[in-house]
Structure formats: structure tokens, C-alpha cells
Amino acid sequence: MPEKVSESPVQFEYEKQKRKEEMKQQVITFALMIIFTIIAFAMVASGLDKLFVIPILLVLAGIQVGFQLYYFMHMSHKGHELPAMMFYGGAFAAFLTILALAALVWW
């Protein structure tokens, strides 16, 4: 069994600080997602006009998807460029498909 190479105290502190900062970002993001969910439920429960509520719900949902990808699925980290590119390519293809179908319906 290979022995683990001991890292320097400076490297250890750097890694510790980096993990601490990442955990802080995840906790803040989680709190924001809970707040966005509460806002969405409150808007629907309040009985506001659908033309006002639906676009705001879609924006809140999009923000939460971004938070999920970047903070909880670690898409912003090194080494995740290919999965990120594949995801964005798929999202772009889906957008073009929906746009094309909407254009066909309206013409």
C-alpha cells in the first residue's frame, strides 16, 4: 500500500481554507434556494395573476438550476469542462427545438 505523501503546513492550510470557502458558498446557495422556493409557493398561494406569476416562477426555477449545477454538482470546478459543454450543447439544442416548434405553430 503506497504511503500518502505528507503535505506542507502551508498546503494544508490552503486546502483547508479552500474547502471552508466552498462549504460557505454551498450553505449560502442552499439558503437562497429555500428562500426562492418559499417565494414561489407564496406567489402561487396568493392567487396573483397567472401572467405575472408564471414568468417569475420560470426565472426562479432557472436560477435554481444554475445553483444546482455550479455549486452542488461542481460544474465550475476544473476537469468538468466536457460535461459542462455537453450540458450546454443539449440545452441549446432543446432551446432551438422549442423555438422551431413554436415558430411552426405560429406560422
From TrEMBL:
Look up and give the membrane topology term. Answer: Multi-pass membrane protein
Q: Does the keyword Ubl conjugation apply?
A: no
* Pfam families attached to this UniProt entry: COX4_pro
Q: Which domain of life is it from?
A: Bacteria
Q: Which UniProt keywords apply?
A: Cell membrane, Membrane, Transmembrane, Transmembrane helix
Asked whether the keyword Cell membrane is assigned, the reply is yes
Chief subcellular location = membrane
The portions of this protein that span the membrane are 27-45, 51-73, 85-106
Query: Which residues, by range, are in coiled-coil regions?
Result: none
Q: Which GO terms describe its cellular component?
A: plasma membrane
- Localization, UniProt: Cell membrane
Q: What is this protein called?
A: Cytochrome c oxidase subunit 4
Name the source organism: Gracilibacillus kekensis
